[in-house]
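Good morning N.,

You mentioned wanting to compare the apo and holo forms, so I went ahead and generated the holo version with nicotinamide-adenine-dinucleotide. This is what I fed in:
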Amino acid sequence: MSHPGLLDHALLRLDAAAAQLEIDADVIEKLKYARETTKVRLMIRMDDGSRKSFLAWRCRYDDTRGPTKGGIRYHPDASADEVEMLAFWMTFKCAVMNLPYGGGKGAVQVDPRTLSKAELERLSRAYVQAFANIIGPDRDIPAPDVYTNSMIMGWMADEYSQIVGQSSPAVITGKPIALGGSLGREDATARGGFYLVNHLAQDLKLGASHSVAIQGFGNAGQHYARLAAADGHKIVAVSDTQGAVMCAEGLNLDALFAAKKDGKSVAATAGANGHVAISADDLIAAECDLLVPAALENMIHEGNANSIKAKVILELANGPITSDADAILEAKSIVVLPDILANAGGVTVSYFEWVQNRQGYYWPVEEIHERLKVIMEREGRKIWGVATDKSLSVRTAAYVHALSRLADAIEAHGTQNFFTS
Ligand code: NAD
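and this is what came out, ligand included:
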């Protein structure tokens, strides 16, 4: 399935931000298109001896601010358009956080659940062989994304090191700790969002103890629940693909974690500890102060945005709110802390991993938490300032903030004005 116009849709954010700044036309011309998107067909041998091929892409969207950075997604619906849209988002996310990176992304069109572990390894190594001249510690640095994980990053780092003939851990982030991964990467996305909400709590009119509903109870959702509950907040509703539960007095997190560990749905906890089964729509409409979408794209749309009662939405997922829904939420004065800021803790600790690999010196987890906190608070505060000063949504403010950094870098490389004035 292809997604025509996904990048065009994402570019509307660029237009909205550009309208707020005096931007040289050359800057927009540069940011409107991906710099390079390479498509290949990976051919691997399957366990039964047959050969099978898979479409794969790597996009380096823009590298003005540094080597491109972005995950590799394994998904049957992956497309070039989607890869370019995700690489565009990464360009802005890295600029939001002032990381010395441009934006990139990669994908393989595959359902990884249909492959054996050995086939998955061959596919992952084939990806690196195909893109060995594109990726590199100073050129383009992949990371995990949907349906890829640290095991796959380990294989990829190893394949790259074999190709270049030397250990090269900084080519990829999200590696296992034993292969040069960073401490603190596991919960970095949730932790970054948590620091952001804490820092802006007063401005967001969230009380010292607030109630939270979380859509999606995977890596990001579970860690967010743990961090928020430990800080005295109440997790009142959570969901996964198979169901949802709520408890106004606060869910029992141990029961939820145990269910997930057993491979069950959060819905399996209903009936005990005051947990009540609810529908996916009920979760979106739950009575709570903070709603945290931590599942997939486009989950909050025109059809359900009106039902939201939360005061604030923290987008731990990438692109969980459609632009139609954005307009509805703005009219309802619901503050959205946008993905390119809210979930940027993940890429920030990936950046720390890259820095540690290059230094050959590894930081304790406390140092990683502290450095992440400083960056989240600094950039969150700046964006909040732009939103208040210019009366913009936080999303548009985040794009304005990133665009002004990108524009500075592009202009410093030389635009028409630069040469003619
Ligand atoms: P994950 O696969 O660990 O968890 C996703 C969860 O969402 C699962 O519990 C799944 O059951 C649930 N889910 C899927 N469809 C759902 C639906 N229709 N309703 C309710 N729940 C549903 O993934 P993750 O790593 O936690 O990532 C979640 C989101 O956060 C994604 O959008 C991802 O791009 C984004 N994100 C993650 C990271 C990271 O470091 N993990 C970084 C940046 C952004």
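The domain at 188-342 is CATH 3.40.50.720 (Rossmann fold).

Happy to go through it together on a call whenever suits you.

Best,
F.
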